[in-house]
Amino acid sequence: MPSPWVANLSLYGIALLIFTLMHSVSVLVQYRWIAYTAISIGCCFVVAFLIGTKEPGLNQPSQDKSLSRISWAHWFKKVLYYQVALVYMCTRLVTNVSQAFLAFYVINDLGMHQSSKALVPAIIYVCSLVVSVMLQETRWSGWRLKNYFSAGAMIWILSGIGIVLLPSRMHNFMYVLSITIGAANALMTVTSISMEGVLVGEDLNGCAFVYGSLSFIDKVSCGIALYILESYQGSTKISENQELAYGYSVTRLGLGLVPAVFSLLSAIVAHTMDLPEARRRPLVEPLLA
C-alpha cells in the first residue's frame, strides 16, 4: 500500500525541484523534463521488478465452480446501482477536474511562484493520505457512509467558494484551502468506494462488472467535462468576454464552481440512498504496517 504514496510524493518532489532549478526556461521545457525524469525512473523500477520478482506457483486447489454467475443485467434492475454510479462519477469529477485546473489557477489567477504548481498539489495529496489513514479503522454503516460523504462534500463546497472569491493579493491562503481540499477529497473518495462495496455485498461473481462499469463512466464523464472546460479556456476571445462579463476566469470557475456543484449534487443523491448494513471484516494488519 505505501508504494503508490511514495511514487506520487516522489513525482511532486521531482516537479518541485525542476520548477525551482529551471525557473528561467519555458513551462513546456519544465514539463518535458518532468516527463523524461518520471519515465526514466519508472522504467528502471519496472525492469528491476521484472528481473527481481519471482512469480509463485499456484498450489491452492481450484475454487468451487458451482457458484452461479451473475448477469450484468442483474445490476441494471437495482436503483442503488444508479445512485452509487452517480455519486462515484461526481466524486471523480470533483477530484479530476480540480486537479486539472489547479496549476493554471495558482499561476495565472493568483500569480504564485512556479514552485506552487508542485507544492499545492503535494499538500492536497498529503492531507488526503492522512485523512485516508485515519478512516481505515472506521466501522462503516449506511448512515455513517452518507454522513461522512456529505461532510466531505460540504467541505469541498466551502473550499470551492473560497477558490472563486480568493483575490490574488491573498494567494497564500491557497495553502490553507489545500488542506481542506485534501481532507474533502479523501472523505468523498473513501466513502464513495465503500458505497461500491456495499452495492456489491456478497455478490462477488458480478463485482467485476460493477467496478468496471463505474470506472468507465467516471473516465468518460471526466473526459467530456475537461474537453468542454478546456475548449472555453483555450479560446482567448471567449475567456476575455467571460472575465469582462462575470469577473471570473474559466480556470477559476473550473476549479472552484464546477467541483462545488458536483459535490452538492452527489451529497443530495447520497442522502436518497437506502444502503443495507454490510458486515465488515476487520483488517488483518494496520494499513501502514
TrEMBL record:
The keyword Cell inner membrane does not apply. Keywords: Membrane, Transmembrane, Transmembrane helix. InterPro entries: MFS_2 (IPR039672), MFS_trans_sf (IPR036259). GO terms for biological process: carbohydrate transport. SUPFAM superfamilies: MFS general substrate transporter (SSF103473). GO terms for cellular component: plasma membrane. The keyword Membrane applies. One of its GO terms (molecular function) is symporter activity. The chain crosses the membrane at residues 6-26, 33-52, 80-106, 118-136, 148-166, 173-193, 250-273. Belongs to the major facilitator superfamily. PANTHER family: MAJOR FACILITATOR SUPERFAMILY DOMAIN-CONTAINING PROTEIN (PTHR11328), MAJOR FACILITATOR SUPERFAMILY DOMAIN-CONTAINING PROTEIN 12 (PTHR11328:SF28). This is Major facilitator superfamily domain-containing protein 12. It comes from Aegilops tauschii subsp. strangulata (Goatgrass).
